[in-house]
């Protein structure tokens, strides 16, 4: 098959243009505000799912109550984050990433005291990460995000404190299983 010279040049230019467009179509690095909103929203969505799981799988009333609180607090935070994201013209994430889903699934395989201990440990770690993220944004140049972070930080601190003081919340949890459901 023979291709005319001008047709060949046109095909090469078209291919080069397509490759250049594909490079520019790749998602540019998100702005810091967008990075924060996506990370924070996905973290809150994960906390909601983990809270639901704790209500279903917890052995102790303390961990069950902690799950209720985490679900409630992070659903509220996620609602505000979603609204701010939409106001900024962002596409709001509506699902967890594969890593988050895998963490939830792995935790869901645990039961009894093993579940309770793993859940509390995960809550402490996730709240440390969230507080680092929100503290950095609280001092940002974006007044809306700064205000949002400053409003969320007390809730995050309290949630972390509650998770960290699990033994004080519900001492002897082995003796206080959640009533059959």
Name the descriptors:
181 residues, mainly alpha, Ferritin, globular
What does this structure look like?
The chain is mostly helical. The protein has a single domain (31-171), classed as Ferritin (Up-down Bundle), CATH 1.20.1260.10. It has 7 helices and no strands. The longest helix has 27 residues, at 61-87.
Radius of gyration: 23 Å
CATH architecture: Up-down Bundle
* SSE series: HHHHHHH
Average residue-wise pLDDT? 80
Could you name the ranges where pLDDT drops below 50 across 5 or more consecutive residues? Answer: 1-29, 173-181
For the biggest sheet, the summary is: none
Helix and strand arrangement:
Layout: H1 5-25, H2 32-57, H3 61-87, H4 98-108, H5 112-138, H6 143-164, H7 166-169
Helix pairs in contact: 2-3, 2-4, 2-5, 3-6, 5-6
Structure in a nutshell:
With 181 residues, the chain is mainly α. Helices cover 76% and strands 0% of the residues.
């Amino acid at each position: 098959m023979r291709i005319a010279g001008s047709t060949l040049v046109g095909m090469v230019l078209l291919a080069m243009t397509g490759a250049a467009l594909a490079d520019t179509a790749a998602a540019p690095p998100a702005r810091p505000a967008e990075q924060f909103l996506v990370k924070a929203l996905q973290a809150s969505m994960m906390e909601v799912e983990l809270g639901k799981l704790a209500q279903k799988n917890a052995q102790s009333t303390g961990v069950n109550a902690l799950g209720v609180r985490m679900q409630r607090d992070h659903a509220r935070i996620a609602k505000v984050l979603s609204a701010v994201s939409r106001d900024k013209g962002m596409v709001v994430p509506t699902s967890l990433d594969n890593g988050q889903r895998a963490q939830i699934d792995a935790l869901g395989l645990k039961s009894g005291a093993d579940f309770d201990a793993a859940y509390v440990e995960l809550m402490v770690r996730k709240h440390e990460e969230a507080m680092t993220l929100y503290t950095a944004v609280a001092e940002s140049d974006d007044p809306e995000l700064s205000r949002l972070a400053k409003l969320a930080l007390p809730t995050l601190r309290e949630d972390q404190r509650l998770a960290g003081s699990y033994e004080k919340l519900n001492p002897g949890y082995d003796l206080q299983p959640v009533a059959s459901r």
